[in-house]
Amino acid sequence: MSENMAGYIDHTLLKPEATEAQIEELCREAIKFDFFSVCINPSYVKTAAQALLGSTVRICCVVGFPLGATTTAVKAFETAEAVKNGAAEIDMVIHVGALKDKKEDYLTADIAAVVKAAASCPVKVIIETGLLTEAEKVLACKLAKEAGASFVKTSTGFGPGGATVADIMLMRETVGSKIGVKASGGVRDLDAALQMIEAGATRIGTSSGVTIVKS
Question: Could you give the number of structural domains in the chain?
Fold first, then answer.
């Protein structure tokens, strides 16, 4: 498994202080180690598209990040612009407050609008597990699947806590085998990554990708 690990990894740099030079370095590393994608903020999608030109590395762009509390129209616009600029996948943050209020229709429409704006690009729904009860995690996963998302994802990496084996198992059990589960937040070494994949993760979001594949 370890020799194929690079293909699971979204090589991630989402820090607010990230510079253009650091994004370009992220892209060079992604090409060198053959990571699945780079995961970046919207303002750097054009930079990454230029840096990755001619490679097989995809661009994954976050939307409504990191709080998820922007309006649906803003998330949809942000998604469409990211795709236009070169993004091939979208990682959107669910509206956590609406989830806690059990506003199921709102949440389904919010996710579906992003899925529509993304056209054929896969959408991952970040549910921010560290803020949720088990019942809320299950509801978030069910709504994401119903709204047409391609993945559910544990965390932004900016919330209280990251991916756990228990959460990955719960999310996989909830969504079944047809859509992906992304473990993100605190996956910093090969052992942790392998545990997540064993639990049902099909993608790993990490800023420690180089460390993991060199292990």
Answer: 1
> How far apart, in Å, do the first and last CA atoms of the chain sit?
12
Q: What is the mean pLDDT of residues 142-170?
A: 97
**Which one of the listed residues 75, 137, 145, 153 is annotated catalytic?**
153
Distances (CA, A) of 6 to 16, 19, 35, 184, 188: 25, 24, 5, 15, 14
Q: Which of 176, 186, 182, 92 shows the shortest CA–CA distance to 138?
A: 176
Q: Which helix (H) or strand (E) holds 60?
A: strand 58-63
Write down the pTM of the prediction: 0.97
Q: What are phi and psi of 58, to 5 degrees?
A: -90, 165
pLDDT score, position 31: 98
- The yes-or-no verdict on residue 40 having pLDDT over 80 is yes
Instruction: Please state, in angstroms and rounded to a whole number, the distance separating the CA atoms of residues 42 and 178.
Output: 28
CATH (domain of 200): 3.20.20.70
Spot the catalytic one: 10, 91, 110, 167.
91
pLDDT band at residue 161, thresholds of 50, 70 and 90? confident
- pLDDT tops 80 at residue 2: no
- To the query of whether residue 91 is one of the catalytic residues in this protein, the response is yes
Has 103 been annotated as catalytic?
no
pLDDT of residue 195: 97
DSSP character at residue 178: S
Domain that residue 29 falls in: 2-214
